[in-house]
Amino acid sequence: xxxxxxxxxxxxxxxxxxxxxxxxxxxxxxxxxxxxxxxxxxxxxxxxxxxxxxxxxxxxxxxxxxxxxxxxxxxxxxxxxxxxxxxxxxxxxxxxxxxxxxxxxxxxxxxxxxxxxxxxxxxxxxxxxxxxxxxxxxxxxxxxxxxxxxxxxxxxxxxxxxxxxxxxxxxxxxxxxxxxxxxxxxxxxxxxxxxxxxxxxxxxxxxxxxxxxxxxxxxxxxxxxxxxxxxxxxxxxxxxxxxxxxxxxxxxxxxxxxxxxxxx
Amino acid sequence: xxxxxxxxxxxxxxxxxxxxxxxxxxxxxxxxxxxxxxxxxxxxxxxxxxxxxxxxxxxxxxxxxxxxxxxxxxxxxxxxxxxxxxxxxxxxxxxxxxxxxxxxxxxxxxxxxxxxxxxxxxxxxxxxxxxxxxxxxxxxxxxxxxxxxxxxxxxxxxxxxxxxxxxxxxxxxxxxxxxxxxxxxxxxxxxxxxxxxxxxxxxxxxxxxxxxxxxxxxxxxxxxxxxxxxxxx
Lengths: 264, 233
Known about the structure:
heterodimer; A: 264 residues; alpha+beta; Ribosomal Protein S5, domain 2; six-stranded mixed β-sheet; four-stranded antiparallel β-sheet; 12 strands; elongated; B: 233 residues; five-stranded antiparallel β-sheet; 27% helix; 30% strand
């Protein structure tokens, strides 16, 4: 990829972008699609501009952890497929995939978005575990926001599979109409700092030109549940405040897009 | 013969509803999506690009490398652990052999064309969907090709020779055989042939002839998808 970091940086200083967007505009189109995989208990495809991410929820019955015998669990994994960008290679997840998975995970886990106690079937013996796999189809920048939106949508669309009453075996081919016990709906918004300006929804080229970034996950009440600062340039307290304001405003925007899509 | 009616009501030579589109992954040099019933395959082609490590390079011509992968949530049972499995490696290898005969990379010494497959949902016939999608993605990427490759599985379910088996048929409680086939379109040669289950020689030949016939329909879908992107009107 040929990137003119300098041009992107100079443009940002005068509030301009290569693609003509305002600094705080998301790319279009934003598409949210559910049930894109019949084999998953819940699934979603999210498109923001040219960035496309899939998320799938699988549910399984496991023994609860020893320190939380009356709770289920969640796990989030991210795969940056070499299918989605010439920069990714096959093999075990690198630090970028690990960070993406962990930041998305914390946004949902720390918001206590899922009622873990309701996932318990038999204390100390059996509880539902929720695994969300995030897979990139085309990485054109801003995977954090796309991944978080896809993960939440997949969770919202998930339905428990039928469990055989006698054997306790899961029949993955049949779903009940029971959805996951969702208490909150956290969404992550990442704000990038490029040459002193705050930028929303960067393209892959803009990501390469960033000085710092801050991901802010928040629920519909505006309560923040997770943050992650990236990049080598420091941020001031004032900047963090500005970033939070902007991130909360943009989370509202993404939430509206999600609700619009789920209505159709 | 107990199996007279197919589990989903198709005719013996009926294919599941197909959908195809090319150019679905903007980052790739060529890409395609192919759906057959509830099996969906994405294919992305990157290259020709320089091949590393260098000892793999062929100074006479470029090579292709297939990478087949099911997404963790794409199996009809439990979650599939991410990363390469023995099954995925074998399918990648047979895909390479299925596609290689029609690809001419003599103009690209030392280069590689990578073909990545991602399956978000599966209901049998995944390698066939993968090969069909890969062939379209290669054409979309402008890779020099002598012919198109189309792929379908055929086989025998309790004495009835059928095309495009789904999972319910593969798992049917009787003698079943599953024969994934890929063929070139113009020269009508077989480039992929695997088989598991039990089948008589006569039924095998009958199956292969059936494959040849129904692959015309798969080819039409591939051709139309490419035309939809590249024809002027």
